[in-house]
Amino acid sequence: MCFAEKEVKNVRFTGFTAETIDFLWQLRMQNERAFMEENRQRYHHVLKEPFDVCSAALYEAFTKKHPLQMDYAISRINRDIRFSKDKSPYKARKWVVLKETVTTTQHWKFRPVFYFELMPEGYAYGMGIYEPSPAYMRAFRQKIDVAPAAFARLAKEMEKHKEYVLYGDCYKRIKSKDIYDKTIQNWYERKSLDLVANREIDDLLFSSDLVDFVVKEWEKLLPIYTFLKEIVPQE
Description:
The protein is an alpha+beta fold. The protein has 8 helices and 7 strands, in the order E-H-H-H-E-E-E-E-H-H-E-H-E-H-H. The chain has a 7-stranded antiparallel β-sheet with strand order 1-2-3-4-5-7-6. Strand 4 and strand 5 form a beta hairpin.
């Protein structure tokens, strides 16, 4: 998965446009090099440049309110098809992750990140760990075991945010202890963790208010982000 570090200064995000969504739909339906070559300038104008500006605005707004040591990375449009059965050359979506500065483009996926994603049919935002190591998830379960009541309170606080759904593959064999209720089991038994909120295309997407909205949504997830960020696995 390829990402590019971006820095955009002195440009204000004013919202995406209908042309942005039209381009994503067309790219999905005509995912071939000929289409991209014919529409390269259009891609930069209606998708890449506004998404770069949006990503910078999200990063600046979030880190201004919460002085965490973070940077951000933006997905490239090209797909790595070397080991994939799907040979479509491009991704008909764009996303940005806010990640710890101690990570690299090779290692950010092993740590918790905030993210925003734009797709033809809508957009998503949330917090999760793309590819946690078994050692990380083992340390995660051990941290729960130390103070299960405290984690139960945290998990129940997250459940109050109904717009978020917890995703992540679960182990085939149940690993949670019998004493844990469903609230803890829902987290304890997973191989990866991803809290996601999805929205269809709406007026907010075409407004500068999108940045403040996403930042406020990310703030709801700060308690569980902090819990996950403090985990240091013993490899």
